[in-house]
Write a structure and sequence with these properties.
Elements lengths: L1 H17 L22 H8 L4 H32 L5 H10 L9 H10 L7 H8 L2 H11 L4 H9 L4 H12 L1 H16 L3 H6 L8 H4 L4 E2 L2 E2 L1 H32 L5
Antiparallel strand pairs: 1-2
Helix pairs in contact: 2-13, 3-6, 3-7, 3-10, 8-9, 10-13
């Protein structure tokens, strides 16, 4: 496992090392893992040059924030309803909803584009945010976790006069912190790195996200890999921070929601 871990980390080490090198030293062999003359000009050019990298960073942060918050709200509400509310056709509706996971996302791109174009959402961030707010996997994850909460706890709250929303908000939701953090990490990672939807729905360069914006470092003379490495390291930092902060809850959420093994 240690050998496999090192093999996985080697490209990241090379990326970080290359971000402090000039273009001419990038592909020298043998590889200089620690640059002899490290430079910061790559980062200065990325953040302060002509590439609008700070704007791309802000766009990705905005889209990811609204998507993560929206998906947590909708998934937790739907998961609570499917797990704890008894209504006609509940299991059948959940099964049909779950079955939509087998539909490739690419199949829906054309009808979604036509729909968003007719209602004026193409070339806006909402065209990327709205589809991400509703997630089948998130609903399934939250339902699995809500199902582990004893019904006796809900019955006691009903006896005390609590309604369904109060039970959800004050009793059940605080107990699902590991599942919420799991959904947060997975959603954050997916939408921070999302390339396909922004590529299709966003046309103005002022709206581009980081994955699309990285193509700005390729010009008529070819790709400036030193700048691409510096931009990639900068784009990777939020992911590392989020995972480092919430890793303990993430492992607990995966183990408690029935997704392990």
């Amino acid at each position: 496992m240690l050998v496999l871990g090192v093999m996985v980390l080697i490209p990241f080490f090379w990326m970080i090392s290359s971000s402090f090198k000039i273009q001419a030293d990038l592909f020298k062999y043998p590889i200089n893992w620690i640059p002899k003359n490290p430079i910061l000009s790559n980062y200065e050019e990325v953040w302060g040059g002509k590439y609008k990298f700070a704007l791309f960073y802000w766009n990705s942060a905005k889209i990811t924030f609204f998507t993560v918050v929206g998906s947590i709200i909708t998934s937790s509400l739907a998961g609570f309803a499917f797990a704890k509310l008894n209504f006609k056709g509940r299991d059948f509706i959940f099964l049909m909803y779950l079955a939509t996971m087998i539909i490739p996302a690419q199949v829906l791109l054309v009808p979604r584009f036509i729909l968003f174009d007719r209602i004026g959402l193409v070339n806006t961030h909402w065209a990327v945010i709205l589809p991400g707010i509703f997630t089948v996997f998130g609903t399934f994850l939250m339902r699995q976790f809500f199902s582990t909460i004893p019904n006796e706890l809900l019955e006691a709250a009903k006896v005390d006069g609590a309604g369904f929303f109060r039970i959800y908000w004050q009793i059940c939701l605080p107990l699902t912190k590991p599942a919420i953090v799991t959904l947060l990490i997975l959603t954050f990672t997916w939408h921070w790195n999302e390339y396909e939807n922004p590529l299709i729905f966003l046309r103005s360069s002022e709206l581009f996200t980081l994955p699309i914006g990285l193509s700005s470092f390729v010009d008529e003379y070819g790709a400036n890999y030193s700048l691409i490495m510096a931009a990639s390291v900068s784009a990777l930092l939020p992911l590392i921070i989020v995972v480092a902060i919430f890793q303990r809850f993430f492992v607990e959420g995966i183990a408690s929601s029935g997704l392990k093994g």
